[in-house]
Amino acid sequence: MKGGQEISKTPSSSKRPMSSQGSVDIYAAQCKNCLKWRVIDTQEEFEEIRSKVSEEPFLCSRKANSSCDEPADIEYDSTRTWVIDKPNLPKTPQGFKRSLVLRKDYSKLDAYYITPAGKKLRTRNEIGAFLKENPQFEGVSVTDFDFSSPKIMQDTIPETVEQKDSANKKFKIAKDEV
Ligand SMILES: [Zn+2]
Q1: What is the pLDDT of residues 13-64, one digit of tens each?
Q2: Domain holding 115: CATH number?
Q3: Which of 31, 102, 159, 165 is deepest in the core (most CB within 10 A)?
């Protein structure tokens, strides 16, 4: 399966009540060889891996002091909610930050960018206008920004979340194992 290995992020743990803003708190990548999940320390590093994951699949050895012989850093289970990014999303230009906010009903994550001066940009048009008004960001292009939202893994949505679609009830795994 080409490019089949996925990168995932986990927004809030299901153990604590969702704050008003559900956002990503841990980044992880799956090793192509052993399929274990490795925690990626920074968003920047995560985005670097994600930006070329098809050409350069993630391997445990890429992380310092890590190898396929080590136990996984984190297990994919319903103790937290997992969302899977599309592969090969562009790396966020320097100084900008990409943010994702989970809707309260877990139906979707909304992507937006924050400029170095702290302005929120929510659409490609806003990015275009911003870059036009701020010629100091030369070399940064609209194509460096991508608003695709990651896929929410239905089997990891906490039980307490009410969803319009009750179809995912069959996935309910009640245990918080640790
Ligand atoms: Zn491995």
Answers
A1: 333 344 445 788 899 999 999 999 999 999 999 999 999 999 999 999 999 9
A2: 3.30.890.10
A3: 102
Domain with 127 in it: 7-159
CB-based neighbours (< 5 A) of ligand 1, an ion? 31, 33-34, 60, 68
pLDDT digits over 150-172, tens only?
A: 999 999 998 888 766 554 444 44
Cα of 53 vs centre of ligand 1, distance in Å, is 15
**What spacing in Å lies between the alpha carbon of 139 and ligand 1's midpoint?**
36
* pLDDT for the residue numbered 9: 57
The reply to whether 26 falls in a domain is yes
Instruction: Calculate how far, in angstroms, residue 26's C-alpha sits from the geometric centre of ligand 1.
Output: 19
pLDDT in tens, 50-109: 999 999 999 999 999 999 999 999 999 988 999 999 989 999 999 999 999 999 899 999
Per the structure, the count of domains in the chain is 1
Which residues, at least 6 apart from 89, have a Cβ–Cβ distance to it below 8 Å?
A: 47, 50, 51, 146, 148
Would you say residue 167 lies in a domain?
A: no
Q: How far is CA 135 from the centre of its chain?
A: 30
Q: Is residue 57 part of a domain?
A: yes
How far apart CA 166 and CA 163 sit, in angstroms, is 6
Give domain status of residue 84, yes or no: yes
CA of 60 to the centre of ligand 1 (A): 4
